[in-house]
Amino acid sequence: MHCRFLFVLNPFYSVPKLFLPIIEVVKNTFYHYSQDHVPSLAAALSFYTILSLSPILMVILLLLGNFLGAAAIEGQIDQNLSIFIGEQAAAVIHEVAISAFQYQGSIGITLIGIISTYFSATSVWVQLQWAFNYIWGVQSKQGTRNIIAKYLKDQLVALLIILVIVVFVVLGLLYGTLLSIFDEYLKLYLSDSSIDFLRLINFVVSYGLSVLLFALAFKYIPDVQLAWRHVWWGAVFTSLLFGAGRYLIGLYLSRGGISSAYGVAGSLVLLLLWVYYISIILLLGAEFTKALFLYKGHTVVPTRYAILTKQQQ
Fold first, then answer.
1. Cβ proximity of 170 and 64 under 8 Å
2. Lesser CB count within 10 Å: N end or C end of the chain?
3. pTM (2 decimals)?
């Protein structure tokens, strides 16, 4: 009777103590998800991401197209995107990539493409940093000297992370292209178990790289002093959520009848929804990182270029 009464007052009474911290962190994550208006932040981030797709794809095609052939790279882009967002939405990105790549013969257009890629990517960076800062309850200091110093610092960090991401994307496409080329040879000389082992290694490496990218984002994008130990679990959580979410979102968008409901614009709507949901997962990962950080008793300390705007609890 006593235990039943306690369970009514506290539904987590019978839960093993091992899981109570996890439940508390997850509960705080979704509480602040609502308080920080994450869906609205994700919508703004999605807008800048969509605008950046064309120049980014153009540079990727220019970098690898001349070495492996445009058709091979386009095939890899189509194959990877179709898994995530369905064939119709992937076709939209394919058309964007082809339109961008048709000017590859001009050095001037290539340079313009690289420059526009940088500014497009940094616009995504600025919006993502603003969203992360809002989640952490900090904002940039006012004043000309602070603004200039912070701008230079942000541009340097943004450039380094963009280069890391581009290298990972290029290596991923290169690996996929080479794997498809040598796939038949591998089947001739390797056993099925060996091929399965190689696929397992590919999965582990891909997941590890995604964890590293999320950890870089959570540590260096917000104007908050964070150590690596503060971001690893958030990166692991976000990578798991990203892997499960992109499959479920892709499954929903490919079978949900959205394309037919919106007619000609259906493919674009699919793409917009996919980017929007992925943005939500990224920001939810930031909320989880903050919730775990606060649960462990740490205090939010802004960098020298930022100030606190709200008291975290």
1. yes
2. N
3. 0.76
